[in-house]
Structure formats: structure tokens, C-alpha cells
Amino acid sequence: MKVSRSILASIVLMTITQMALANDDPTIATVNGQELKKSMLQFYALERRQVDPKGNIPADKLVDDIVNMQLLKEEAIKKKLNTASEFKARMEFINLSMLSQVAMIDFLDNNPIPEKRLRQEYDARIGDMKVTEIKASHILVKEESIAKEVIEKLNKGEKFAALAKSYSTGPTGPKGGDLGWFTPQRMVPEFSQAVLAMKDNEYTKQAVRTQFGWHIILRTGQREGTPPTFEEVKPNITAALEQEHIQKHINELRKSANISVDAKSAVN
Q1: pLDDT in tens, 51-67
Q2: Any alpha helices (H) in the chain, and if so which ranges?
């Protein structure tokens, strides 16, 4: 059972918003006598922000959406869609999902991962890790026949940077294909494997195919890099340890629970 910190954070924000508006929750619209409250607008805005963090939707558009939803809700009730077994099952699952996530974030808030434990994990995973960085350029083309044409010109002595400017469809083309220094893990596997197998100042005699197209790669250097700092990877380490932490908590809950699973009914 994975914990999405962003989802959990939105639940907390919703809870805080609900508490803040409990004593001051003005009506933003009335539909067929039904008052729609500001708290509903806040919840909806948070939900939209989760889907599109950079979206800036005007409040009046959000209100219109809520009014439309209320109209559709009334229509659903008139048609008694809310009494259907599928609807009831869906609502039970939503309730199950929301409450389980609230319970998880409550547990993590009251049992946070100590800073010392995070640093221990950093030292174990990354502290003394050796990082290799490669410097390379590439020419990206869409067709293998064009890649072969470029390699043929390289074999005849034409300059890599000039060919990159003429042929490459990638964003580094205007810069002569220069990718700068990078860790191989940042690249797609096919590219990483090829560049690691090369020697400095060597270009690929056969184009490397990836999801982006065909690459002609020129490797120009290798050096020992600096591993990421604790602060840079702290969010990732925290997320990983929190996942382990909540799983242990769930395992303890299962030990003290009376659980019976009907495998046949679950499969059929």
C-alpha cells in the first residue's frame, strides 16, 4: 500500500480548511434552494491544484463548475442513480480510501522519521558513493538512413559539431550537439550503455536507437563527480523510509486483527 505524500498533504489542507471555515462558511451560490458553501469551493480548488499545479483557474469559473455539479447531482437523485448498487460500492470505496489515507498521515505526523535516521540512510546509500560523469555530444535524427549518412561523413573527416548543427533534430543541435557533463543514469538505457562502452574522443560507428530516434554519439571525457548532498536527496529518502514505516505499522495492525479472505469470491 503506497503513500502519496502529495495526496496526503491535500487531505490535510482540506481538513484544515474545513476547520477554519466551520464557524464562517458563507454561501457562494444557491441552486434550487440548495446553498453551496465556500468550503466546497476551497475543496474543489485544492483538488484542481493537485491535477494541474500550474493552473490558475479564476474563482468564478470554479463556482460555475460547482453549480453545474450540483445540477447534475440533483438530476442523478431524481433518476435514483444514488440508490444503484454500483454507486453505493463506489462511495464505500471512496470512504475507505480517504479514511485510510487520513489514518496514514496521522500516523506519520505522530511518528516522524528522526533526522538522525535520515542521515544514516544517506550515508549508507550515498555518502561515499562514487559518481562517474561523462561529457558527450550527440546528433539525433529520425531515420536510420540519415544516421548512416552522418556517420559516413564523419568517417570522411567532417566535423561532428558542424554535422550536428546541420542534421540534429534535438535541442542541442544548434550548440553542436553538446550535452555537457552528465551521469549516465540520467539518460535512457540504450544511450547510457553505449556511452559507457565508448572511449574518449570516439564516436559511435553505428547509430544508437532510443525512443527519441537515432543517435550518433561522440564521447569527449570522463571524470569523478560529486554525489548529491543530503538536502538534495532528503525528500526521496524521507519518502522511502516513510513507506517502510507505514508498512510496518500496517503489518502490526494485521497481526492484531481478525482477517478472513474469501479468495474465490475475490477472483471471480
Answers
A1: 777 777 888 999 999 99
A2: 5-21, 38-51, 59-78, 85-110, 115-122, 144-155, 160-167, 189-197, 230-255, 263-267
